[in-house]
């Protein structure tokens, strides 16, 4: 049943993140959940985020809100399923890492509009490590002849 699955997920989350039982959880979780909901995440998405990205709950809303704003800057509308994926993709990504990847894409002819489209359609494409991204783009752009559309 759904409750059994929820209990198993909660137990697994506590095992991997014991801080959930500590005092900081009482301060940060009540702050983060309404923030995520205000950006259009459904209760199911909030629950999944809490389990998959448990560490981010401990950071509080002041650390999460800049990530939410970056997702909006990509042009991913609040309340869409892709908004949730944008949050998950950008969690843990520093601004300098993102700028580095943008620079690599631009080196291969991607424009700002191409990158916004890419981010809206597949925000995880912004997570590919720099060396792998360069290697993949080199193959697709130079050997296969792909061009940004």
Task: Give a summary of the structure in a few sentences.
The chain has helices at 2-16, 23-38, 43-52, 54-59, 61-73, 81-90, 95-107, 112-121, 130-143. It has 149 residues and is mainly alpha-helical.
The Rg value, from CA coordinates, equals 18 Å
Q: Please report which band the strand proportion falls in: under 5%, 5-15%, 15-25%, 25-35%, 35-45% or over 45%.
A: under 5%
* Coarse structural class: mainly alpha
DSSP summary, beta strand count: 0
Low-confidence stretches: none
Helix content bin? over 70%
Report the major sheet.
none
Taken from the alpha-carbon principal axes, the silhouette is: elongated
The rounded distance between the terminal residues' Cα atoms is: 46 Å
Q: What does the average pLDDT come to?
A: 82
By DSSP (H or I, 4+ residues per run), the number of helices equals 9
Task: Give the SSE string.
Answer: HHHHHHHHH
Walkthrough of the structure:
This protein is mostly helical and 149 residues long. Helices cover 72% and strands 0% of the residues. It is built from nine helices and no strands. The protein has helices at 2-16, 23-38, 43-52, 54-59, 61-73, 81-90, 95-107, 112-121, 130-143. The N and C termini lie far apart (46 Å). The mean pLDDT is 82.
